[in-house]
C-alpha cells in the first residue's frame, strides 16, 4: 500500500477497543490527521472502512507508519501492556528518529515505564508513559489523561491531549503529571482508589439489602438519591443503573443472576504492592483487592459455608428504622471514602518523594473530575484542600473533611458495629475506621510490638523520656543497656 507521505500529525498503534476509540477521538478534533497501525492488518482495515468520516491514514508496516507522520513524529501506543508494549517500542525505534515522541497509553506498570523511558531516551527519541482512564467510552468521548515523560514532549503533546481529554468545569482533564513513570504511577493509584470506592459501595449495598430486606430496585432508588448529594459520582450513578437492571431471561434482578466472584486486571494489586514498598498504609485499597480475591475462591467458600456464626437470634439487632439505618450507611460510606482517597493521595505523595517527581496533588484531583471512573464532585474538595495547603501531610485533616468525618462519626461506628454483629462482611468500612482511629490515637500498641521485637530479636527500641537506642537483656538479668540503632 502507498500512503501519502507525512500526511498525519499523530499516529496510533494498536487498534483494539481502546486504540480505535482514541484514534477516532483524535480524528474528530480540528486539525488532526491520524495515521493508524495494528499488528494484524485486518483490524486496521475494519476501522478505516467503518469510519470513513475519520479520514484515517491506514498503514500496514512500521515503515509506512513512520513515513505517514509529520516530523517530529508522535505515536500513541495502545496495545496489551507488557511484552506487547516492548515489542512495539522496538519496532518504532527502528523507524523513528531523534526528537520523535513515543507515548505509551496502555496500563503499564510504572517501573516498566521508568525502565523504558531511560532506554528510549538514549536513542534520542522521547518516551512518555501516559495513564488513560475512562474505559472505551472515555477513550472515544474524552478520557482523563495522565502523561509523564520529559517536559519537551509535553510542549508538543499538551495541545493535542487537551483537545481530546474530558472537560470538567471548563478545564481539560489532563496535566503533565511529572517525569518518566509519574503518569502511570498516578493512573495505578487512581485504579487502586477505584477498587476501594467500588468495594465500599458494594458493602453499602449488601448492608442495606441484608439489613432492611429492600430489593435491588428499591436500593437503586437509594443510590439515585445519594447521587444528588455529597456522594455524587459516576460509580454511585452506575450502581443505581446496575441494581435496577432486570435479567431478560429469568425476570430476576440482574445482580442476583451474576456469579458473585469479582475479577481484577492487576492494577489494584500493584497499588498495594507499591504502597507496601513505600511503607504507606493503603488499608482500604488492600481490603478491596483482597475482598475480590476472597470472592474468587469458590472452593474455599464452599467448604466454609457451615462455619459458625452468631446464631443467637437476639444478638443481631433487627433494623427497625430502615431510613435511619440507610442514612447511617450513607455517612459511613462517605467517611470511608474520604479515608480511601486520603490513603491514595498519601501513596502519590510518598511515590513522588521516593522517585523524585514534582506532582501537584491538587492538579491530579482536578484531572480526575471528568472522563475517568472515579469522577466525582468530591474531587473539587480535594483540590481545594491542596490549593490551601500544598504540603498537607494527611488529606483527611483538611477542614472540609474534618467536618464531614465529625458529622459521620456515630453513623460510621454504628454501621461497623451492625455489620460485625450481624455477620455481614464489611472489610473496607471497618478497616477505614480502624485506620482513622489509628491515626487519631495518642498512643499505639506499637510500643508493645517494639518490646516483642527487642525480646526475640534484639531489635532495640527508643524511649519516650530520653534520646538514644536501647535493648533490654531479656535472657540475662533484664537490665537495660544502650545499643546501636538497628531499625
Ligand atoms: N479496556 C480498558 O478499559 C482500558 C482502559 C485504560 C487503559 N487500557 C489499556 O489500553 C491498552 C489497550 O487495551 P485494549 O483493551 O484496547 O486492548 P488489549 O486487549 O489490551 O490489547 C490488544 C491490542 O494489543 C496488540 N498487541 C498485543 N501484543 C502485541 C505485540 N506483541 N505487538 C504488537 N501489537 C500487539 C493487539 O494487536 P493484534 O490485533 O495484532 O492482536 C491489539 O491491538 C492496554 O494496555 C490496556 O491495559 C484499557
TrEMBL record:
Pfam families in UniProt: 6PGD (PF00393), NAD_binding_2 (PF03446)
Enzyme Commission number(s) of this protein: 1.1.1.44
Keyword presence, ATP-binding: no
Span of domain 6-phosphogluconate dehydrogenase C-terminal: 183-475
Record keyword NADP present: yes
Gene Ontology terms, MF aspect: NADP binding; phosphogluconate dehydrogenase (decarboxylating) activity
Pathway(s) this gene product operates in, as recorded in its UniProt entry: Carbohydrate degradation; pentose phosphate pathway; D-ribulose 5-phosphate from D-glucose 6-phosphate (oxidative stage): step 3/3
Enzyme class: oxidoreductase
Keywords of the record: Gluconate utilization, NADP, Oxidoreductase, Pentose shunt
Functional summary from the UniProt entry: Catalyzes the oxidative decarboxylation of 6-phosphogluconate to ribulose 5-phosphate and CO(2), with concomitant reduction of NADP to NADPH.
Protein name: 6-phosphogluconate dehydrogenase, decarboxylating
Lineage: Bacteria, Bacillati, Actinomycetota, Actinomycetes, Micrococcales
Amino acid at each position: 500500500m502507498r500512503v501519502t507521505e507525512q500526511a498525519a500529525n499523530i499516529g496510533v498503534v494498536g487498534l483494539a477497543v481502546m486504540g480505535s476509540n482514541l484514534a477516532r477521538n483524535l480524528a474528530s478534533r480540528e486539525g488532526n490527521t491520524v495515521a493508524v497501525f495494528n499488528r494484524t492488518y485486518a483490524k486496521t482495515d475494519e476501522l478505516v472502512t467503518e469510519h470513513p468520516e475519520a479520514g484515517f491514514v491506514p498503514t500496514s508496516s512500521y515503515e509506512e507508519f513512520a513515513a505517514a507522520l509529520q516530523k517530529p513524529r508522535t505515536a500513541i501506543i495502545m496495545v496489551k501492556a507488557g511484552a506487547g508494549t516492548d515489542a512495539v517500542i522496538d519496532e518504532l525505534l527502528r523507524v523513528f528518529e531523534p526528537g520523535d515522541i513515543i507515548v505509551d497509553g496502555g496500563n503499564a506498570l510504572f517501573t516498566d515505564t521508568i525502565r523504558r523511558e531511560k532506554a528510549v531516551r538514549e536513542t534520542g527519541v522521547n518516551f512518555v508513559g501516559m495513564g488513560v482512564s475512562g474505559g472505551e467510552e472515555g477513550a472515544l468521548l474524552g478520557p482523563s489523561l495522565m502523561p509523564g515523560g520529559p517536559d519537551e514532549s509535553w510542549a508538543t503533546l499538551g495541545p493535542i491531549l487537551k483537545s481530546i481529554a474530558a472537560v470538567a468545569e471548563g478545564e481539560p482533564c489532563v496535566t503533565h503529571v511529572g517525569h518518566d513513570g509519574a503518569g502511570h504511577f498516578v493512573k495505578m493509584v487512581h485504579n487502586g482508589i477505584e477498587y476501594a470506592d467500588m468495594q465500599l459501595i458494594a458493602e453499602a449495598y449488601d448492608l442495606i439489602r441484608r439489613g432492611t430486606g429492600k430489593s435491588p430496585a428499591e436500593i437503586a432508588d437509594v443510590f439515585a438519591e445519594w447521587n444528588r448529594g455529597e456522594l455524587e459520582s459516576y460509580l454511585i450513578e452506575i450502581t443505581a443503573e446496575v441494581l435496577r437492571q432486570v435479567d431478560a431471561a429469568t425476570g430476576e434482578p440482574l445482580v442476583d443472576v451474576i456469579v458473585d466472584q469479582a475479577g481484577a486486571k492487576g492494577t489494584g494489586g500493584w497499588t498495594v504492592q507499591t504502597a507496601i514498598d513505600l511503607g504507606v498504609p493503603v488499608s482500604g485499597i488492600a481490603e478491596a483487592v483482597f475482598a475480590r480475591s476472597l470472592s474468587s475462591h469458590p472452593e474455599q467458600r464452599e467448604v466454609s459455608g457451615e462455619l459458625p456464626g452468631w446464631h443467637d437470634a437476639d444478638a443481631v439487632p433487627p433494623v427497625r428504622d430502615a431510613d435511619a439505618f440507610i442514612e447511617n450507611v450513607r455517612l459511613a460510606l462517605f467517611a470511608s471514602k474520604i479515608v480511601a482517597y486520603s490513603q491514595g493521595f498519601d501513596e502519590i505523595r510518598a511515590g513522588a518523594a521516593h522517585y523524585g517527581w514534582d506532582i501537584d496533588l491538587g492538579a491530579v484531583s482536578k484531572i480526575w473530575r471528568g472522563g475517568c471512573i472515579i469522577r466525582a464532585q468530591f474531587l473539587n474538595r480535594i483540590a481545594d484542600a491542596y490549593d490551601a495547603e500544598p504540603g498537607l501531610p494527611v488529606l483527611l485533616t483538611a477542614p472540609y473533611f474534618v467536618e464531614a468525618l465529625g458529622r459521620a462519626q456515630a453513623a460510621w461506628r454504628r454501621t461497623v458495629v451492625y455489620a460485625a454483629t450481624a455477620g455481614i462482611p464489611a472489610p473496607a468500612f471497618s478497616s477505614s475506621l480502624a485506620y482513622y482511629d489509628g491515626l487519631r490515637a495518642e498512643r499505639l500498641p506499637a510500643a508493645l510490638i517494639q518490646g516483642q521485637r527487642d525480646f526475640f530479636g534484639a531489635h532495640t527500641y527508643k524511649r519516650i523520656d530520653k534520646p538514644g537506642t536501647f535493648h533490654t537483656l531479656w535472657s540475662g538479668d533484664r537490665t537495660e543497656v544502650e545499643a546501636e540503632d538497628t531499625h
